[in-house]
Amino acid sequence: MGPALEVLYALWRLDEISGMQGAQISQTTLCAAIDRTLWLCESNGRPDEKEFHAHLHSWQALCHILRDLHSGVNLPGVSLSAAVALLERRSQAIHAPALDRGAALGALMRLEHPNASAEAALTMLAQLSPAQSGEALHGLLALARHQLACQPAFIAGFSSHLNQLSDADFINALPDLRAAMAWLPPRERGTLAHQVLEHYQLAQLPVSALQMPLHCPPQAIAHHQQLEQQALASLQNWGVFHV
Known about the structure:
Blueprint: H1 2-14, H2 24-41, H3 52-70, H4 80-92, H5 98-110, H6 118-127, H7 130-149, H8 152-163, H9 167-181, H10 186-199, H11 218-237
Helix pairs in contact: 1-2, 1-3, 3-5, 4-5, 5-7, 6-7, 6-8, 7-9, 8-10, 9-11
C-alpha cells in the first residue's frame, strides 16, 4: 500500500493542474486506502524477504500522512485518535510480528506520543528474543531513526542489551542488527558511531573506526572471536594459560 498512499496523498494535497487537489473523489479514494492500510496493520502475518522493504514502505507512507494530520492537516474521514490507538495496540501486542511492533512504536515517536520514548523502545527490545530484536530494530529505525540515533540513553541501553546476549545469540542476531542500521543515512550513521564511541569512553578514536568496511562477514568475525574465547577458557582450565 505504500506507493498507492504516496500517490493518492500527493494528488489530494498538491495536484492543482488536474484538479485533484482537495477533490471529493481523491479524498474518498485516499481515505479508503488509509482505512485499508490501517486494517492491514492489524494483521499478524509476517512479510517474507521479498516483501520486507515494501512492508516498511507502507508503514513509512502511513506515518507521513498521520504526522501531517498531527500537525494540523484536515482530512475528513480519517480519525487520528483511532489511528494512534491502533499504533499503541500494535506496539504492545505480544503476538504481533516484531517488525510491526517496532514500526508502530517508531510511528508513535514521530507523532510525539508521550509514552513513546527511548526507554519504551528498550523495554520492547528486552521483551523479544535476539532474532526478533533485530526485526524490531528494523521497524524502529525505519520510522524513527532520527529520534533514536541521537539519544545517548538509547545507545547506552541498547549496548547493555547486546552485552547481555550469549555469544551464540549475538551471532544469530547480528545480520538483522546490521541490516537495521542500513536505514541510517551517512550523517546519522556517523552520529550513532560517535555516540557509541563516547559510551565506551573511546571518543579519541575517529568515527570511521566503526564504519570501515570489513574483509569478511561480521558474523564470521564474531564466530571466530567466540572460538578464541572457548580455546582460551580451555587452556585456562588446563592450567596452561592464566589471565
